Amino acid sequence: MLSTIIYRSHISDDVAYKTLGKLAEQANQVNESHSVTGILLFNGTHFFQVLEGPEDAVTAIYEEICNDPRHHNLVELMRDYAPARRFGNVGMELFDLREYDPENVLQAVLDKGTSKYQLTYDDRALQFLRVFVDATERENYFEIPPGDSWEFVVDREEALPREAVPSATADYSFAFQPIIDPLSRQIVSLEAVMRPTSGMSAADYLAGLPRSERYSVDLKSKQHVFAMAKQLGINGLTLSINLLPMSLAIVPDAVDFLLEAIHANGLVPEQIVVEVTENGTVFRADEFEAAIKKLKASGISLAIDGFGAGSAGLVLLTQFQPDKIKIDRNIIADVHKSGPKQAIVQAILKFCSSLQIAVIAEGVNKPEEWMWLESAGICNFQGALFAPSTLNAFPVVAWPEKLEND
Fold first, then answer.
1. PROSITE patterns annotated for this entry (predicted)?
2. Burial of 245 per CB tally in 10 Å (0-12, 13-18, 19+)
3. What is the pLDDT of residues 13-42, one digit of tens each?
4. Same domain, 32 and 122
5. Which domain holds residue 375?
């Protein structure tokens, strides 16, 4: 099976241009021995490479390329399959875009093609090539420093977490995790997530309850959250709570119940954010919509959690607009290395900007993820990089500090 991988990367500062010919020659020998072909473009700062050949060989060569110190900020743009090679003459040919007239450079590249079809058709790989040659998306090439250029430091004054006593009558407690603005060193919100004492996930715990009890237990558990938040002294912070969408629709007077519990613990509705998951089942749409209207009219905010993990997110946005969305952690993971994930994040940011919806990146575990997302325009983050979820306590945050160059 003929596999194709396309990537873009930035040449390292200590690589001399005069060595690029030798680099291409070495790549040519390795690729040819593995029946891998393609083309390597260079524009003075960035490489763009098309690798084509047997899937195992292409994957193995690409993994070696990822570990090559002669370039950095490597982004995989496409991984796909094709019926024929587009560039099949040599193991790898270096094409220096700077040596050609800008008006004719694209055609010069296309002339290197060996496909039996003209390389002007709507082929995805060739569209990526065209975009690189024409430099039409150069503003989206976010060049981030290495992850070890930052250290994450706990403020000594906050070295010990504030703790709360969970309910003695419930078979669950809650873990808390902050949502932060790292560069301004501000905690903007605190999320509370149910942690059953059995060790199972909250979703499995609730799913295991009889349907007649599931939504009532989900809703009433928030009484314990608000009581714990009062003990933790969240003051002016917002508090995010997770609810099954149908808890709002099925439990009678669900919003009134939440409001009473909020006021009973010295909080105000404007402090509370109700998070519903994108893939949460909504089977009584009219009741759910009525509950959302009442929720927002009371001052409680709404967020869609795990945006991008299900299939209902865009439909929900056409029906009602939340105040916040949280991009799913599976999209966030290694976003700095994935062209498709980067495109999705940028699209989310664009339509959220048009709708004035705040965006939060959840599940941020690596400095490179945070740096890329910050460069893309996200300000609020949640993840173990800054603070893990902490059971029955207000977590301690490790704030980023830039290391000085030697």
1. BLUF, EAL
2. buried
3. 999 988 888 888 888 888 888 999 989 999
4. yes
5. 147-402
CA distance 180 to 399: 9
Residues 121 and 168 in one domain: no
| Helix/strand/coil percentages in the chain, nearest 5 | 40, 25, 35
- Residue 75: left (phi > 0), alpha (psi -120 to 50), or beta? beta
Kindly state the tokens that stand for 278.
């994108």
- Residue 250: helix, strand or coil by DSSP? helix
Tokens representing 392?
Answer: 């029955």
Q: Are residues 189 and 270 in the same domain?
A: yes
| Distance of alpha carbon 73 from alpha carbon 402, whole angstroms | 19
Q: Which among 85, 83, 7, 79 has a CA at the least distance from the CA of 40?
A: 7
Angle, vertex CA 301, rays to CA 300 and CA 305, nearest 5: 135
State whether 192 and 324 are in the same domain: yes
DSSP letter for each residue of 334-383: TGGGBHHHHHHHHHHHHHHHHHT-EEEEE---SHHHHHHHHHHT--EEES
**Residue 362 near residue 383 (C-beta atoms within 8 A):** yes
Residue 117 has pLDDT above 70, yes or no: no
Whether 95 and 216 map to the same domain: the answer is no
Distance between alpha carbon 47 and the CA centroid of its chain, in Å?
Answer: 25
pLDDT at res. 316: 73
pLDDT tens-place string over residues 205-235: 999 999 889 999 999 999 999 999 999 999 8
Two tokens, residue 85: 């090679």
349: number of Cβ within 10 Å? 17
Q: How far apart are CA 103 and CA 45, in angstroms?
A: 20
H-type helices in 209-284, by residue range? 211-232, 245-250, 254-264
User: Which of 290, 221, 236, 233 lies closest to 268, judged by CA?
Assistant: 236
pTM of the predicted structure, to 2 decimals:
0.91
Smallest CA-to-CA distance from 84 within 40, 48, 53, 121 is with 53
- β partners of residue 401: 151
45 close to 9: Cβ distance less than 8 angstroms: no
**CATH assignment of the domain containing 62:** 3.30.70.100
Considering its fold, how many domains does the chain have in total?
2
Sign of the CA dihedral with 12 first, then 16, 20, and 25 last: negative
Q: Is 326 helix (H, G, I), strand (E, B) or coil?
A: strand
Which tokens go with 62?
């690409």
In the numeric block, the tokens 């690596």 are attached to 366
CB 74 within 8 A of CB 66: yes
**Same structural domain for residues 176 and 113?**
no
